[in-house]
Amino acid sequence: MVRMRALTFHEYGPPSVLRVDEVPLPAPAGGEVRIRVAAAPAQPVDAATRAGVFAGRGPDTTGRTLGWDVAGTVDAVGDGVTGFAVGDEVVGLSDWFAPGNGAQAEYVVLPAAAVARAPAGVSAVEASTLPLNAQTASQALDLLDLPAGATLAVTGAAGSVGGYAVELAIHRGLRVVAIAGAADEEWLRGRGATFVRRADAVGDAVRAVVPEGVDGFFDPAGVGAPALGAVRDGGRYVIAVGTRPPAGERGISTAVVMVHSDGAELARLAGLVESGALTLRVAGAYPLEDAATVHELLAKGGVRGRLVFVP
């Protein structure tokens, strides 16, 4: 049996439980492609999964390969696949909670519908940072469904999801209020956002620049209920998965964005990278064997850009 190296864990716990295993090489079924992995980012959701945060909410996730997003080269194509051929450079997203079919390995099999051509002119390490975080931001904006000219506040606005949300919102013609630490002010103003320094009283901080309240609020930082004070009556609020949305008040609608793979959307996002509308940020590249170190860095926070595994 042909085998490959993959990052996994066999019990919930600290970063030290992570290990690189030899596992069977997967074969693509109908409608699937196999990708030889060039780069696969480590995400906070990987660390939460390893720590057991989601234990009891679904099937046991121990023993599964970690990793949601990938950049690499198509290595094999299943029956019925059109649009991709062996040798194509691609990016893709695993809907990990369903199959536990992770990308932090030498190879990964994904539905062709979850894959897109990689953006031209960037490295695989850079391209790998696009799928999960940019699609989360894009799908949150779709949920908010704000018209051009509307105001949007974003927490964690210099983070990996928030940064994409700021750029995508500006590309859609929204006026963006970016909430982040002082060290990120220059980067955010350079994207065209109005900067607001992170504060406990986030509602008051945003109302100081938008007295009438913003039309929409995307909250990847998970501020929760205090953020509603920044939203006008009848406005909209979306939080990233993993945190229960606060109860609506003053007619404010609230929702959670549950990211899902969408190859067509990913292709559009790759095009925005090529046009310069989206910025890819990498904090560092590491072999799978350094997984414990990478998860420790995730736990410390403050990383700008993704930490990426290079199998």
Automatic annotation (TrEMBL):
<dbReference type="GO" id="GO:0016491">
    <property type="term" value="F:oxidoreductase activity"/>
</dbReference>
<dbReference type="InterPro" id="IPR052585">
    <property type="entry name" value="Lipid_raft_assoc_Zn_ADH"/>
</dbReference>
<feature type="domain" description="Enoyl reductase (ER)">
    <location>
        <begin position="13"/>
        <end position="309"/>
    </location>
</feature>
<dbReference type="InterPro" id="IPR011032">
    <property type="entry name" value="GroES-like_sf"/>
</dbReference>
<protein>
    <submittedName>
        <fullName>NADPH:quinone reductase</fullName>
    </submittedName>
</protein>
<dbReference type="Pfam" id="PF08240">
    <property type="entry name" value="ADH_N"/>
</dbReference>
<dbReference type="InterPro" id="IPR020843">
    <property type="entry name" value="ER"/>
</dbReference>
<dbReference type="Pfam" id="PF13602">
    <property type="entry name" value="ADH_zinc_N_2"/>
</dbReference>
<dbReference type="InterPro" id="IPR013154">
    <property type="entry name" value="ADH-like_N"/>
</dbReference>
<dbReference type="InterPro" id="IPR036291">
    <property type="entry name" value="NAD(P)-bd_dom_sf"/>
</dbReference>
